[in-house]
Amino acid sequence: MARIVLEKLAHSYSPRPAGESDFALKQIDMVWEQGGAYALLGPSGCGKTTLLNIISGLVMPTRGRVLFDTRDVTTLPTEARNIAQVFQFPVVYDTLTVAENLAFPLRNRRVARGTIKTRVTEIAHLLDLTAVLGRKARNLGADLKQKISLGRGLVRADVAAILFDEPLTVIDPHLKWRLRSTLKDIHRRLNTTMIYVTHDQTEALTFADKVVVMHDGYVVQAGTPEELFTRPTHTFVGHFIGSPGMNVMPCRIDGTTARLDGGTVALARAYPSLPQGARIELGVRPEFASVKPKGAGLPVRVRRVDDLGRVRIARVELMGIPIAATLPEGVDLGGEEAALVFDAAKVHVYADGHLVEGEAIGAAR
Amino acid sequence: MNKTENQQAWFLVLPVFALVAFSAVVPLLTVVNYSVQDTFGNNQFFWNGIGWYQELLDPASQLGERFFDALWRTLLFSAIILAIEIPLGIVIALAMPRQGIGVAISLVVMALPLLIPWNVVGTIWQIFARGDIGLFGYALNRIGIDYNYTQGILAAWFTIITMDVWHWTSLVALLCYAGLKSIPDAYYQAARIDGASRWAVFTTIQLPKMRRVLAIAVLLRFMDSFMIYTEPFVLTGGGPGNATTFLSIDLVKLALGQFDLGKAAAMSIVYTLIILAVCWVFWTVATSSEAERRPT
Amino acid sequence: MKLRALVMTLYLVFMLLPVYWLVNMSLKTNTEITTTLTLWPRQLTFANYVAIFTDASWYSGYIHSISYVVINTVLSIAVALPAAYAFSRYRFLGDKHLFFWLLTNRMAPPAVFALPFFNLYSAIGLFDTPWAVALAHCLFNVPLAVWILEGFMAGVPREIDETAALDGYPFPKFFLKIFLPLIASGVGVAAFFCFMFSWVELLLARTLTTVNAKPIAATMTRTVSAAGMDWGLLAAAGVLTIVPGALVIWFVRNYIAKGFALGRV
């Protein structure tokens, strides 16, 4: 078990990086607590796999350090780090049986035969693989193979962390949920640090205690799914998380009012010191925006209404800007024109994409 | 690929069928024809039934003794060749660079012997292995070995084998290299994480993934070494004496040299059948073990 | 990693040593060859090469060889293309057996065909022409070409055929303008192997020719004169047969490297 610390980490794949654009990973400082279940979420190319490979030792970072507890492991090779990694598509040793596959890492480390047998039985039981222990690994389905890959990682009692690189990619959709619950179960029981890379927000939000959102080589925000949802610190996080994502509208702040093309919005906080010349935007999630029949509120045109079952999402337009908002139950708009109302407490202000804290209204001036 | 049933596809296949049939069936029929006939000369033939076959397969007869001698020689040759070239080919495939300028250089140099006309291969080694004008022969004699491939049986075999290894190992290596290249990186990464030794990586990842190409390599090398003619013929002419007279060489001697049509024909048929039988057995074994690997 | 580099270097040296020796000999005079053993020519001479380029009986051997190789390659590819298309897209009566029978022809010893071909091509009057050798080589090259091309064609989805048919392309136009470019590398690989097997094979080439279509192999066997074996001339002739092969590999080296990842290996 280990607490993983990343210190001033940066990585470039080119031998002589010139500028920032050559870096796949720009400055990262992070702490992964022992026993935590983390998700590394981001679109393709954001650097999450690079980060994972640096933690596991498959890649040596250009700059910065990796520490396991207090040990500097930056230059240690993978074998010496006690890491387990599960890859995108299942890696099993075809010529060996399931039991031999699970025993493989222990045999390589010259563990006693008796211990191997106990561990293999234990892990097979944990992963529900006992029935197939005697079968050749190559004939099994993808989900079982991924479990074997996972098992090979778990079988080493001293494993510091388990890293997952989009492990459900090749699994059939109807088996994905089963594997996902197995992973959560394992985490609960063994309390190992788990880091799970994915581009699928549902996977990330259901698996992890804490989600790290990455974009273009930066860590944009790290927080619980709740935090990411209610308080995105960057417009990117707002877009990326939530379905549909957060609405972003350009505006001007005037005291405690935001002026948009088309109307004003009352804010719950004051923003006295916004950076000069920055692009100011308002961010609000569709869940906290509602569409009402024409009247008080921002005047919008309704383009269409999607009925998602639990909720109805109205796609509206405010002076050319597309916005998604909730259409409350029982409300009938009766026409194309409607009014948009925001929950002021859930409205955020962003300068150049970054969240501005603002001050409580009535604070000492 | 979802293939549709279409009998008219035969028209597309007709040119190939006609060409190969012309090249194969007509001659084969001729050979079968000759194999069951005898002649007094002057183009007069009479039925001999399985007479030639009986004589051929009887080790006590002159023909049979000659045939079996050549057969054992050829089998021994093929066995030695496979024992050297397959492992060596695998080693070279593993040693080949994966990227950079080295790849192009290695591929080009390795492929060179494969594109040299077979008689020139023989000529190259004919010169190279001579004690007087060849570097190889000269060097061997200088370090004290009494080496003369035209007179010593061991020397002749040694030279032919070295020549074949030089000529064909690259084919095995290139096939294995192709097999190795298809292994995704994740396998090697997982093996590193599992703490696998170099040998374990070889036996559990690389060798299994090369199974299919190795089967092709073994098949090709067996066939070609069993059928070999030009290179040893140019190098030793089948000698000294009969020491390197392999089946093909003996057959051509019989057919085109002595014009012993009936015997040559019978030998041709048996020769071909042996190859077909071995290949069929090997292929069935190889693909059946693949069939059991279908995922459930 | 150092061990790998060492093994590879040793192997490459092993490959080049006999070739270097041949080149070395081709640039020496016969006197030098028979008197001393030197690692490079003390008296550099191009006389052997000049002799070959100016003596018709020599250079015609090369011309004959090239002509039957080219005829064979073109012929093999031409007939193999429609057949491979049929195998990759259709099921028909006897298709699997036909395919297998084609492959078994590769397993027949050329020695078995020497005499029958001799008789056959004499009978139809093609004896001692490049056509005889080209046709004879089809026995092995056509199955190989079909096998390789079928592999590449199987990688092209049928949807492309169907879309072209819907767009109104007549089949020949579709085949030439759309399909062929997609399998261009496959055609290249097949042509390469046809060229290779036809260029190197010599039992049949010699059996089916005497004077008019004699390949370079046959010419090389008559380098014995009153003064003894003309080693320098023989070596030069040998070097010149390696040149086409070397050129071909050099030009397709990138395709070899790439083609190994795909295709029928």
Task: Provide the descriptors you would attach to this structure in a database record.
heterotrimer, B: about 300 residues, mainly alpha, MetI-like fold, two-stranded antiparallel ribbon, 3 strands, about 5% strand, globular, C: about 260 residues, 2 domains
Summed over residues and divided by their number, the pLDDT of chain B gives a mean of: 85
What structural class do the secondary elements of chain B suggest?
mainly alpha
Roughly how many Å is the radius of gyration of chain A?
25 Å
Number of strands of chain A: 24
Beta-strand level of the residues of chain A, as a percent range?
Answer: 25-35%
For the biggest β-sheet of chain A, the strand order reads 6-7-8-3-9-10
Count of discrete structural domains of chain A: 2
Uncertain spans of chain A, ≥5 residues at pLDDT below 50?
Answer: none
- How large is the radius of gyration of chain B? 24 Å
Overview in brief:
The complex is a heterotrimer of chains A (365), B (296) and C (265). Chain B is 71% helix and 4% strand.
Write the layout of secondary structure elements.
The complex is a heterotrimer of chains A (365), B (296) and C (265).
Chain A lengths: L3 E9 L10 E10 L4 E5 L6 H9 L6 E6 L2 E2 L10 E4 L11 H11 L4 H14 L15 H13 L6 E5 L7 H18 L2 E6 L2 H7 L2 E6 L2 E6 L1 H6 L4 H6 L6 E4 L1 E3 L2 E4 L2 E4 L2 E2 L9 E5 L4 E5 L4 E10 L4 E7 L2 E7 L9 E6 L5 E4 L2 E3 L2 E2 L5
Parallel strand pairs in A: 3-8, 3-9, 6-7, 7-8
Antiparallel strand pairs in A: 1-2, 1-4, 4-5, 9-10, 11-16, 12-13, 13-14, 15-24, 16-22, 17-21, 18-19, 18-21, 19-20, 22-23
Chain B lengths: L3 E2 L4 H26 L1 E5 L2 E4 L3 H6 L5 H34 L5 H11 L6 H11 L6 H8 L10 H29 L3 H9 L4 H12 L1 H16 L3 H7 L10 H11 L3 H31 L5
Antiparallel strand pairs in B: 2-3
Chain C lengths: L1 H25 L3 H6 L11 H8 L1 H34 E2 L3 H10 L5 H14 L6 H25 L3 H9 L4 H12 L1 H17 L2 H5 L8 H5 L3 E2 L2 E2 L1 H29 L6
Antiparallel strand pairs in C: 2-3
Helix pairs in contact in C: 1-13, 3-4, 3-13, 4-7, 4-10, 7-10, 8-9, 10-13
